[in-house]
Amino acid sequence: MFQDEAHFGRVSDTRQCGSPQPIQPLCQAMVTQEYVYAYAAVSVADGELDTLILPQVNCHCMQLFLDEVASRHPNDWSILALDGAGWHRSHTLKLPHNLRLLMLPPYSPELNPVENLWNELQEKSFHNRVFDSLDALENHLEAAMRDMEKDRECVQSIVAWPWIINSFMK
């Protein structure tokens, strides 16, 4: 499995949009420094996605996420490949019995297919949107991630890169 985190905030992603003449489209914009953080772990073999929304990225939240992933797969033994952020390398993390961590090389987001899931989520669910509150943003993020979790075929099409799949076959 590959793991990553991303922040989602009340900072709108305003993009070009069109409308029939003579109507001019109105796109709202907002810059507010309020964020929630999405954690995700994905199996490239079958597109199974585990997500969790937490208020921060730190050792405590990472521990909550690791425990959640382990509890969702109690009979599986998993290796989580992750980017080696400070909270990933903390000695205070207590790994569940069925999880091991594998650090990817530093500064190499191109090796982590979860990065493409974040791009998909941003592009499909968050462009040209303004949220009245952090709760509204979190509710929208939760629904978008739940829909993504249910669509394993779509997730697998995004994350099952040939070099990863071929490495399992050898």
From TrEMBL:
Transmembrane segments: none annotated. GO terms for molecular function: endonuclease activity; nucleic acid binding. InterPro entries: RNaseH_sf, Tc1-like_DDE_dom. The keyword Nucleotidyltransferase does not apply. It comes from Nitrosomonas communis. It comes from the Bacteria. This is DDE superfamily endonuclease. Keywords: Endonuclease, Hydrolase, Nuclease. Residues 2-137 form the Tc1-like transposase DDE domain. Gene3D superfamilies: Ribonuclease H-like superfamily/Ribonuclease H (3.30.420.10).
